[in-house]
Amino acid sequence: MLIMLKKYQKEILIFLVIFVSYTYFFHLAPHANSLTRYNLVQAIVYEGRLTIDSYHQNTVDKSLYQGHYYSDKAIGTSLFALLPCWLIKISGLKVGINFIYYLLRVITVSLPSALFAVIFYRFLGLFNHSSKYNVWLTFALSLGTLCFPYSTLFYGHQQAAILCFISFILIYLLKDNLIPSSLGTILVGFFSGLALITEYTSAIIIMLLFIYLIITLPEKKKLWLYFLFALPSLILLLIYNYLCFENPFVLGYANQAPEIAAEAMGRGFFGFSLPKLSILYTILFSSYRGVFYTSPVLLFSILGFYYLYKERHLRMEFYICLISTITLFLLNSSFAAWHGGYGIGPRYVIPMLPFMAFPIIFIFNKNKHYFKLFLLLTCLSIFLMFITVMIDPEVPQFFEHPIRDYILPQIFNNHLDYNIGFFLFSKSNLVSILSLFTIISILSILIYKHSAVRCQLCQPGQENKREQ
């Protein structure tokens, strides 16, 4: 046991840094998007039905069909929480409903996200032998992008990002014959099916990954395993739709209430039309929803794609990452509710963020002098995401400059979100934040101490493997 802990001590420390960051703030007053998903969990576990009639008044995000209310969201996030909620129910745990919400979020979103950070770190080790670069890129993605706030909320975007990128990793490993083809194909199919029913916009990435699988799978005759293990999730969604709306092909969005939401969804196809350049600019660069504004470290992805393209043996991976990134930005800019309601950024692009961040690692294979600027932008991005999380990631949509007009005034007025520091150390905001910084600093120092250790996945001579 001690040998295993020593062997994976850096991975454990990375996990702890990110898990503590994701779980430190409670967010005990979730908003409509989270509540409609919680409502479905409660309805199934406590009432044995799919209608959320008993809870619908706490959210505007809902469907109305034949006098009954239903959750209008993709069902994956709620399904993941059913077992934890049932265990809480039978345990007789006497806590408030908001704390139950917190536990469900931690188990189904925060914990998988922190574990994914370790997987991402290890995967980077296949392409760069420097642990320093791999650690910082992992922190940049996990703590310096929208992955951070949406790992603290009961939404499906981050879960879909995890499922899609793990599928990408598995296909890459299949391509290099690093895992058995049957097992890899089964897992890709299973995770792809789950991603689809968790966040519908991930369908674009899933289609790209399927093409990637077809092209790279050594044993094409095993493709049937992909469909066999992807179908159960799809069948489950069809059954749910039929039980709720008497039609397996009708989604909750088709019956969305109230009328103002239905009007927005009624534009084009389920709210989608042609991409708009003005909106595209807004979700890229503006202070309102700009992904490069709140996560300036992602500017390095532009250069990263250039260096990834130069890796000829990774040309297919380049196209998958680039097309995933571009198409989700375009998709977001074509949506009537492109701003995502309450939030800090364009949340609909979250499933592609790992694909956007991954190419950055190839910069440091060729030009290490970029690292200082990368480090600076990473710290700035983490700071912006952190102050958002410690106040409220679900910023009301009518603030034109969320950080300046909402986040900073809340900080100056000493209105921090309830957190573990309040519970364990002191009701003082300053003490609670210093407690978090102390924990993170100690863990980070331990990581730095072992920064000379190479990733366990790295193998000698692999960084130039198959380079032509």
Verbal overview:
The chain is mainly α and 468 residues long. Among the domains are: 224 residues, no CATH class; 98 residues, no CATH class. It has 22 helices and three strands. It has a three-stranded antiparallel beta sheet with strand order 2-1-3. α6 runs antiparallel to α7. The two termini are 42 Å apart.
Please provide a brief summary of the model.
By secondary structure, the chain is mostly helical.
Euclidean distance between termini CA atoms: 42 Å
Run of helices and strands: HHHEEHHHHHHHHEHHHHHHHHHHH
Structural class: mainly alpha
Strand percent estimate = under 5%
Number of H/I helices: 22
Determine Rg (CA atoms, Å): 22 Å
Strand order of the largest sheet: 2-1-3
Query: What overall geometry do the principal axes of the alpha carbons give?
Result: globular
What does the main sheet amount to?
3 strands, antiparallel
Q: Would you tell me the overall average pLDDT?
A: 90
Helix content: 55-70%
- Got a strand count? 3
Spans of at least 5 consecutive residues whose pLDDT stays below 50 are: 453-468
How is the secondary structure organized here?
Layout: H1 2-7, H2 9-23, H3 32-47, E1 62-65, E2 68-70, H4 76-80, H5 82-91, H6 97-124, H7 131-144, H8 157-175, H9 181-198, H10 203-216, H11 223-245, E3 256-257, H12 259-265, H13 277-285, H14 291-294, H15 300-309, H16 315-333, H17 353-357, H18 363-366, H19 371-389, H20 402-412, H21 420-424, H22 429-449
